[in-house]
């Protein structure tokens, strides 16, 4: 049962970026629960991820956010990390590499993923890009090498 979080409104994120005097931004997303959450938030009529575990819904959400922010800010980089809440040295290195050159990091994850990024990047401004809403019961189905899901809690 994944943690369910919804992306915060883009105008709210822009306000937070302005308050922090942000200029260079990177976006880090979680490829597990936050990816599932984005798929549910976007309407679950598109695949959640490919068979090779490419988190399609999170990539779509981050691309959308990046396009909005490009008008006022320089988005230096973005990445999706599978299971951002589980700290490993490899994830630490990925977080540090993607945030290099950014003064602010937007984290698209549950609060546990946010804590991981805060622990790895104590000297950067961190903005949480999602709001925790609870838990969801979902069911996955493989179709044409892509994973789709249905929200079992709506049945």
Summary, kept brief:
The chain is 35% helix and 32% strand. It is an alpha/beta fold and 155 residues long.
Strand proportion, as a percent range, falls in 25-35%
Classified by CATH, the class is: Alpha Beta
Assembly classification: single chain
The CATH architecture comes to 3-Layer(aba) Sandwich
Question: How helical, in percent, are the residues?
Answer: 25-40%
Flag low-confidence runs.
none
Keyword list:
single chain; 155 residues; alpha/beta; Rossmann fold; 4-stranded parallel β-sheet; 3-stranded antiparallel β-sheet; 5 helices; globular
Descriptive overview:
Helix 2 (33-42) crosses helix 3. The chain has 5 helices and 9 strands, in the order βαβαβαβαβαββββ. By secondary structure, it is of the alpha/beta class. The model has no long low-confidence stretch (mean pLDDT 87). The chain starts with a strand and ends with a strand. The protein has a single domain, classed as Rossmann fold (3-Layer(aba) Sandwich), CATH 3.40.50.
């Amino acid at each position: 049962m994944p943690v369910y979080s919804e992306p915060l409104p883009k105008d709210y994120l822009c306000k937070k970026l302005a308050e922090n005097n942000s200029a260079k931004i990177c976006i880090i997303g979680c490829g597990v629960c936050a990816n599932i959450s984005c798929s549910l938030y976007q309407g679950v009529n598109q695949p959640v991820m490919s068979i090779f575990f490419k988190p399609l819904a999170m990539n779509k959400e981050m691309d959308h956010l990046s396009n909005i922010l490009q008008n006022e800010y320089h988005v230096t980089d973005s990445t999706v990390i599978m299971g951002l809440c589980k700290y490993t040295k490899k994830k630490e290195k990925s977080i540090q590499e993607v945030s290099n050159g950014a003064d602010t990091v937007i984290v698209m994850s549950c609060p546990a993923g946010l804590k991981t990024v805060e622990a790895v990047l104590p000297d950067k401004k961190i903005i949480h890009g999602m709001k925790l809403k609870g838990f969801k019961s979902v069911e996955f189905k493989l179709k044409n090498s892509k994973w789709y899901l249905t929200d079992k809690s709506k049945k």
